[in-house]
Amino acid sequence: MEKLTQIIHILHFFLYIPQKSSIFALDFENMNALSEIRFPIEDSWRAYERLMEQSLHADNKLQQEVLRHVGSSRGKQLRPLVVLLCAQICDTITDKTLRSAVALELLHTASLIHDDVVDSSDTRRGVEAVHAKWTNKIAVLVGDYMLAKVIGLIAEVRNIRILEIVSNLGKNLSSGEMVQLHVGQSMWIDEARYLQVIEQKTAQLFQACAEAGAESAGCTPKQRAALREYGKMLGLCFQIKDDIFDYSDLEEIGKPTMSDLRDGKVTLPLIESLRRAPKDEAEEIKAKGERLVADGYSPEEEARTLEEIKAFVLRFKAKSTLCNRCLPIKRKPRRR
Predict the structure, then answer these.
(1) Is 5 exposed, middle or buried (0-12, 13-18, 19+ CB in 10 A)?
(2) What pLDDT does 319 receive?
(3) What are phi and psi of 123, to 5 degrees?
(4) Which domains are present in the chain?
(5) Is pTM beyond 0.90 here?
(6) Residues in CB range of 239: below 8 A, 6 or more apart
(7) Which of 253, 266, 256, 255 lies closest to 309, judged by CA?
C-alpha cells in the first residue's frame, strides 16, 4: 500500500492551494456539483462548448449522425475543465487553451470509441456504444475522423510543447490499453499492477490536461511541473474513486455497478479485500469470479454471485477504508 499512500499524501498537498487556486478542490463526494466548480470560468466554458460543437461537425450525413450521438453523451467533461482551470491559475484562458481542451477531449472520446470495439462493450455512459448502434467499421472510421480533428486543432495552437503533450498522450493511451489487455490474460492482479494500469490511462490523461492548460497560459516551468503532478495524482484518485463506486448501491451513483468484474477487470476494492481475507475464502471468491467472467452462470446465478462478491468486499471494509484514505479533505466555502 506504500505507493497508494504516497499518491494520497501528494494529492492532499495539491488539493489545498489558497485563494483562487482553491477551485482545484474537485469534490469527489458530490461530482454533480460541477456548476460550482465551473463558476470561476463560466464565460470561458461557454466558449469551449461552442468550439466543441463546431468540432463535432461533418459534411457526411452518416458521419454527422454518429457524431451527434457521441456528443449527446459526453459525460461530466472533467478533463477539459482541468485544462481551463489550470490555465486560470496563471490568470489567462487563451484561444490556445480552448483549442487544447477540445483537442484533448476529442482524443479521449476517440480512444473510448476504439476501446469499446476492442473490449466488445455495448454501452458507454448508459447509452449504446457506436459500434453496437452501427458497426465496428463505422466506429473505427468515426474515431479516426475525430483524431484528424485533434491534429487540426493542435496545428492551430502552434505550440510545440502542447503538440508533444498531445502526441505523447495518444501513445500512452494506446500503450495503456495494451497493458490492460495483457493483464486481462490473468485477471487476478496485485495493487502494483493495478496502479500501473490506471497510471498509463486515466492518470496520463489528467496529467496531459493539466500540463497543456498551464502551457497554453504561459505558466512558468515550476508552475507547469506542479500542475502536471497535480493532474497525475488527480487522475489516479479519480480512477480509484470510480472503482470504489463500482461496489456502491445503484441509487447512490446513478449507473450500473459491478460492471468491471463482469468484464474481467479486478480493481482496488476487490484486490484489498482478497488481501485481507483468509486464504480459503479468497480462493473461493476467485473461483466464483473466474466462472462469472467465463459466463458459467445462469442470469439468476450471476446476480446472486455478484451480490456475494459485493458483500465480501463490504464485509472486509475495503470500500470504506479506501474512501477514507482517498477523501479525508472537506471543501472550504468559496468566497464570492
Answers:
(1) exposed
(2) 54
(3) -130, 155
(4) 2-237 (1.10.600.10)
(5) no
(6) 198, 201, 202, 203
(7) 266
